[in-house]
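Suppose a colleague, Dr. K., hands you the sequence of a protein chain of 237 amino acids and asks what its three-dimensional shape might be. Before reaching for any lab equipment, you can write down a predicted structure in token form. Begin with the sequence itself:
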Amino acid sequence: MRLDKLVSHGAGISRKEAADAIRSGRVLVDGQAVTRPETHCDEGSAITLDGNPIVTGNRYYMLNKPAGVICSTRDAKGPTVLDLLPVYLRRDLFPAGRLDKDTEGFVLLTNDGAFAHRMLSPKKKIGKTYRVTLDAPFSLETLQQAFAQPMDLGDGDITSPARLRLIEDGDRPVAELVIYEGRFHQVKRMFGRFGLKVIALKREAIGGLVLDPGLAPGQWKPLTQQDLAKIFSVSDD
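The predicted structure, expressed as tokens, is then:
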């Protein structure tokens, strides 16, 4: 692919801006300045613009979303998950599945629409694991039996069977819930059917890929193909 096209796509700038940057010596390919925009480069080449790496091809990132950040590509009301990444990485990225603004935890960011569709397809039955803190004790047996069946959340919005276990007992119990879709406020609505209020919610895993405990809220890391394979290693197929 032409170097100016790679730089334009990877840096989110116009082809003319990319060509001007190349001619001025601001672009390095494998550590060497290349000043001809028409130069052919492999997508595997190490390309930098003003010292910042140009990332090409399909990309995948694990983000530990903090509460208060909007799970969208852009929003006038507040910071989004993309705002947590460097500008040079944001081009074409989107969250593969969303979390509520006040929910924390694992968000997968990618530019690979086919991968996102596969991961989110109900047919794949990829579980999303949540850590849920509730405002009051509850009968574990009652909720396990109810959640293990399809649940009508209202207006015919019916969930797939889910799995629940208790992690911490007490006045503010903590539970682990695995669901297989991402309906609007689904976790809150499920517990709300039993008069329970969710006071803290964190997504800890997608399929078999667990949120890296070393990632503080707001931090992110790139994912390898081995990481991505773990997502599909645990399902109810």
